[in-house]
Amino acid sequence: MIYNRRTVRRHFVLTAIGKDRPGIVADLAEMVFELGCNLETSSMINLGSEFATMVLLSGQGDDLGQRLHMACKHLEYETGMTIFIKPVEAGAAPASSPGARPHRVRTMGEDKAGIVARTARAIADAGGNILELTSHLRPAASSGTPLYEMELRFDLPRSADPEALRRRLQAIEESLHIDITLTPE
Asked: Regarding the domain with residue range 9-88, which homologous superfamily does it belong to in the CATH classification?
């Protein structure tokens, strides 16, 4: 199907979860391609025996949402995946304040409850907007003790005090006995 070049581009976030297997990425990418859509931004990861992805895609046509919905239902039926679709505004930007400064926090230490919650709250209370969070658990080489590593990328408003955030993160670091590093990007 050919669309008029003046047709408005529509954007959707597609989230899919399914049992990990060879071909799961190909199935999703082929569906996007067959709909004439463009895969703009994606994050895909294996989580235990499950595979999860979040994709920002765009395409044209007033009926794109309906075509996408039908294609996803078909793929869910064929593969057992669970797929969610959400329309988004074209060109929408993160909720960061204008002129925000990019920062990064890295944590590492023995796995303990509250690392993510307390760190994320400190960033939010400073006015920061988290853009990406990745984490993983791995055994320590010598003892096998579970070590938790996390990295957050976030924007901090120009009006925020990075040193006040650093002090708050240091208090978390001391109470949980972990290492936390805050750096501007």
From this structure: ACT domain (3.30.70.260)
CA distance linking residue 54 with residue 68, whole number of Å: 15
Q: Where are the domains of the chain?
A: 9-88, 101-184
Q: Which of the four pLDDT bands, split at 50, 70 and 90, describes residue 1? A: very low
> DSSP states of 76-137 as a string?
HHHH--EEEEEEE-TT---SPPTTPEEEEEEEEEE--TTHHHHHHHHHHHTT-EEEEEEEEE
Instruction: Please tell me the CATH superfamily of domain 101-184, with its number.
Output: ACT domain (3.30.70.260)
Q: Could you tell me what percent of the chain has a pLDDT over 90?
A: 85
Asked if residue 182 lies in contact with residue 169, where contact means CB atoms within 8 angstroms, the answer is yes
